[in-house]
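User: Please look over both lines:
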Amino acid sequence: MNKVTRLLTISGRNQGMILPTMLVIMLVTLTVILSLSSLALAQMNRADRGVMAANALLVAEAGAEKTLRELNIDSGFAGYQTEEVLAEDNIQGRTTYQTTIAEGSLSNEKIITSTGRVYMPANSTQPEVVRSIRLVVVGTTTDDYAVRTGPGGLIMTNSATVANGDVYVNGYIDMSNSAHIGSANNPSNVFVAHMFCPEPPDETFPSQCTSGEPINISHSATIYGEVHATNQTDGSGMYSPGLIENSSAPPTSLPDYDRQAHKDAASNTMSSSEASCTSNNTTKIWPANTHITGDVDIRKSCTVLLQGDVWIDGSLAARNSGTIEVDDSLNEHPVMMIDGSGGIEMKNSSQILTNVNGVGLEIITFYSTASCSPDCEDVTGVDLYNSQNITTISMRNSVLAAGTRLYARWSRVDINHSGSIGGVLGQTIMLKNAGNITFGEKLSSGESVWSIKNYQQIFD
């Protein structure tokens, strides 16, 4: 065989091997492409369903909020018993909510169940995703305000909310992000006296300022309601009707409390170890008119049953689902007086519960930087200026205190990531990251104000 014939033979053999190889490669490539396409499609479907599930939950929450608002207007409201359309378009489909209201286990308790549905496409008769939540709400009544401050003023950031009551501020208001006071449907009256001069302070502090703006609103923060503020000319971020031109607000004093009478009535004594409650799922009783010496700790789902007024000469810490509950025998709110520099700190799902009659607790802290602390009859000047920046009431990380009134007599209240609270007084009040705060206040129904006690997503 000559060289030419040999080369042709080898070439033919190579062509015969290449064709099957190419077919195998093409089949493998096609298989990989189909697998990747199926995986991508599955991921897209999961992502779409995840978005719809999130939307259904948001719709359920919106329905619960609307139900709570109607319940505060009319305590006999029975819920949205047929589906209400929240939104409908060709992209998001059709979203609806449906709610029911049932009586709770306590006389002042109701249970709101809200179901959100997403229909895709919008004309579908069967929902693509369904999500439900349950709110336990309690009815409470408080005084004629939701928030009242001294010269340290009211500071609100992120989603902090003041609802269902008027706001009295002796100093100034600073609001940022999406914080808001009142709502378009339920406005709040706001009064700001601008008592924050001179700065730096001297013995005349607090005096009314003669210039400057006492209200600062930035980002999307808003106030809904009549605003009366001394020296305020900028009405930005204020609606329904907003700033009343050329108006002013008179200075107001925070309420006094007969501290000495409270101390004199404390005929019982408990040590801090006797009063502390730290064992899992147990109950400890604090009798009426008790003086607790030292610092107190409540934690590990332990419950303190409060039977009347209590005086703690140290500080109080409640955490990890620790609970303070007002005894069912009480028809008037008991007062817990706290003297320590740490005041009261509650966090990590700890809570204060009203009794079956809707009677809540009042907490008053008396620490200040003055030498007479905690027995000062009055604190002014530099001592008040310094004291207003010391936190003696701290509520954070899912604390619930519906029906409870908090009062930092000479110092500051900090509320962060917490739930319903009856009312707040303090020289300074700071609210942040607190989207669920609703201060209990009488509304047009003239009955109890319904505030959120517990939130739960329902999983079928």
Q: What stands out?
A: Confidence is low (pLDDT under 50) at residues 440-446.
